[in-house]
Design a protein that fits this description.
Strand content: 35-45%
CATH architecture: Alpha-Beta Complex
Largest sheet: 4 strands, antiparallel
CATH superfamily: Medium-chain alcohol dehydrogenases, catalytic domain
Helix content: under 10%
CATH topology: Quinone Oxidoreductase, Chain A, domain 1
Order of helices and strands: EEEHEEEE
Shape: elongated
CATH class: Alpha Beta
Number of helices: 1
Distance between the termini: 7 Å
Number of domains: 1
């Protein structure tokens, strides 16, 4: 399955955003779930991170994800996860706003 994510590597919302192909780690680690995002929000923290001038530092030029707030469907569950199962509708947020990404299926 092909996936894409909204990401950026330079400052300057909204022109910094681009839709890029990504590889997902499969299967999820034992305590992780994979969620097919059906809705996501760009909140004030996302916008502030995109506009920080520090992205010009060479070590920070990698692609950074967006959309820490999301809702969607569980598509894979790690072996130690007991609370959720494939097909569950979930919502949440990530505490790693620079490493997360709103991921959409290209299929």
């Amino acid at each position: 399955m092909a996936f894409k994510a909204w990401s950026y590597s330079t400052p300057g919302y909204p022109s910094c955003l681009s839709l890029n192909p990504i590889d997902l780690p499969h299967p999820p680690k034992e305590t992780e779930i994979h969620v097919r995002v059906q809705a996501a929000a760009l909140n004030p923290v996302d916008l502030q991170l995109m506009n920080l001038p520090i992205w010009y530092i060479p070590g920070l030029r990698y692609q950074k994800g967006t959309g820490a707030d999301f809702a969607g469907e569980v598509i894979a569950v790690g072996s130690a996860v007991k609370k959720w199962k494939t097909g569950d509708q979930v919502w949440g947020f990530t505490l790693s706003p620079v490493r997360c990404a709103v991921v959409i299926s290209a299929d």
